[in-house]
Design brief:
Radius of gyration: 18 Å
Number of strands: 4
């Protein structure tokens, strides 16, 4: 009986152990993200939201003309505003990224030369 349960319990035990790797008090929600500060190496920039407002959804249609252009901080802020996003995340080649989904975030993916390769919401 024990040998039949072992294959079923192994994934469950792994999930429980990995759950302990999450930082305390964090969640994948936009509400949890609003308390994060912008650090130079984080690649994520947060804009203040008016109190009582709903989280805006990102729309990349208005920023597709930026593809292929060299990225700058000013361009990132312009892309954030034009896409209706609250947050931008800058992703460079080989950079590790988390997989949580944030509908108010614009992901700006750069190529090796620092040009905008892709713009995606989430």
């Amino acid at each position: 009986m024990v040998s039949r349960l072992t294959p079923l319990l192994t994934p469950l035990a792994l999930a429980v152990l990995l759950g302990g790797c999450a930082a305390p008090g964090t969640s994948g929600s936009a509400a949890g993200a609003s308390s994060m500060s912008n650090t130079p190496d984080s690649g994520t920039s947060y804009a203040p939201m008016p109190s009582g407002s709903t989280v805006p959804d990102c729309n990349t249609d208005a920023v597709q003309n930026l593809l292929g252009q060299a990225y700058s901080d000013g361009m990132g802020e312009t892309a954030r505003r034009r896409s209706g996003s609250r947050v931008i995340r800058l992703l460079k080649p080989g950079q590790v990224m988390t997989m949580e989904y944030d509908p108010s975030r614009l992901n700006i993916i750069l190529d090796g030369q620092g040009a905008i390769q892709a713009l995606r919401c989430g």
